[in-house]
Structures are given as C-alpha cells and as structure tokens.
Amino acid sequence: MAGRRKHPLGDVFGLTNFGVNLTRLAPGAVSALRHAHGKQDEFIYILQGRPTLHTDEGPTPLAPGMCAGFKAGTGNAHHLVNTTGEEVLYLEVGDRSAEDEVTYPDDDIRAALVGGHWTFVRKDGSSY
C-alpha cells in the first residue's frame, strides 16, 4: 500500500463501535487490495481529488463530495485507485464488528479478525 497514509481519527477520541480514518492516496496509489468484509460495513466520502472506485460492477470515477457505502456480507469487493497526478483525500468509516472475515477475489489471501487480532492466510488456508 505504498503511497497510502491513514490517520486514525476515531482512535484519537477513543471510539470503539466504529473507526474513522482520514486517508491520503498519492498519485498511483491504491487504498487496499480489492476486498469484501463479511461483517463490517464500510463508508467512504471523497474530500479532494478524483479516485476511481473499483467494485464487482467495474470502475466508477468519483469526485469531491461523492460517497460510497459497502454493506457487509454482500461479497462485492472494492477499493480506490488514484490514477491521477493529484493527491486524493477521503474519509473512511467502518464499524468494528468482532470476528470479521475478509475475502480478496484478485489475490491469494484471506483475513480473519479473531480475538481483536487480524490473521492472514492463503485461500487454501495455508500460511505464508
């Protein structure tokens, strides 16, 4: 995730039910591997720049003032890509549901939140 900088605003205020990050994407950076949460809802709000949102439906250009939400359990994988020469700045909000699982359709990885800690394995369950 080179070129991505997250500032955990929710942690500053001790929020425990949901997280809020102010995230910056440098030109050419991506927000994350394209992923879908099993239990955690996510929401993004674009403050600056013009990222492209990639979901199972394909690419969607976004601009300041636009937002997107990702309901948990739908399997619709998503991430943002900054293909422009300008920095992108956005807020991301997600709940902190325990025992979440994350799928990554484009990569050989699976994640699970167990006991407050993320573990990562290959899709077949083997470790890295």
Strands, total number: 12
Q: Structural class given helices, strands, pairing? A: mainly beta
- Following the backbone from N to C, one meets helices and strands in this order, namely EHEEEEEEEEEEE
Outline the biggest β-sheet: 5 strands, antiparallel
Helix count, DSSP H or I runs of 4 or more residues = 1
Question: In which order are the strands of the major sheet placed?
Answer: 1-2-9-4-7
Beta-strand share of residues: over 45%
Radius of gyration: 15 Å
Overall body shape: globular
What fraction, in percent, of the residue positions are helical? under 10%
Mean pLDDT: 95
Describe this structure as you would to a colleague.
By secondary structure, the chain is mostly beta strands. 3% of the residues lie in helices and 45% in strands. It contains one helix and twelve strands; from the N terminus they run βαβββββββββββ. Strands 1-2-9-4-7 form a five-stranded antiparallel beta sheet. It has a four-stranded antiparallel beta sheet with strand order 3-10-11-12, with no helix packed on it. A three-stranded antiparallel beta sheet has the order 6-5-8, with no helix packed on it. It is globular and about 40 Å long. The two termini are 18 Å apart. The relative contact order is 0.24. The mean pLDDT is 95.
